[in-house]
Amino acid sequence: MGISRDSMHKRRATGGKKKAWRKKRKYELGRQPANTKLSSNKTVRRIRVRGGNVKWRALRLDTGNFSWGSEAVTRKTRLLDVVYNASNNELVRTQTLVKSAIVQVDAAPFKQWYLQHYGVDVGRKKKATTKKETAEEGEGAATATEETKKSNHVQRKIEKRQKDRQLDPHIEEQFGSGRLLACISSRPGQCGRADGYILEGKELEFYMKKLQRKKGKAGAGA
């Protein structure tokens, strides 16, 4: 039968059936949704569409380009988990990547950039009482050697950047866990990519509340 977007197969307002007076047309076709899954086995299909144009239908993805708006930096990173979807919980359960889905991405590329740009290893635990002093001394020596590698010019540059440095406490907390909350802004089933942006400010607070509420409900249900 196929998916058809015409109105010939629909009943009349009175409830009577219509006679099909012509065959189906190519421009009335419909295609099934991509339902892009989060998987390491990346699969993208090329689809020829109307006008000879091309769409890229992503069936399985696990990486994407995510931008950190306040720092004006974009990095390719791994998608780790789908945690929230405003339209449908089923899409969270089945780990489906769609536009506006809230996902967790690997923080490592951004952490690395932050260290290089500001000279701050963000997300490190401040109190490491359980670790041995020898290990701490070893780390101190390693950081000292790193600092010696930097030229005076680079150190001055980093010091200048430090003056204007501001980091959202919620984001700093996420860096500690190694996962950042992000929103997908591309359409994986249309362009074959899962790109988006890191959540910040009011938007981040909103989704954190939503996730907490969801977690609370799950705990109450159990």
TrEMBL record:
Coiled coil: none annotated. Gene3D superfamilies: 3.10.290.70. Pfam families: Ribosomal_S8e. Residues 1-39, 126-171 are annotated as: Disordered. The keyword Transmembrane does not apply. It comes from the Eukaryota. The keyword Ribonucleoprotein applies. Residues 8-26, 151-160 have a biased composition (Basic residues). Keywords: Ribonucleoprotein, Ribosomal protein. Belongs to the eukaryotic ribosomal protein eS8 family. This is 40S ribosomal protein S8.
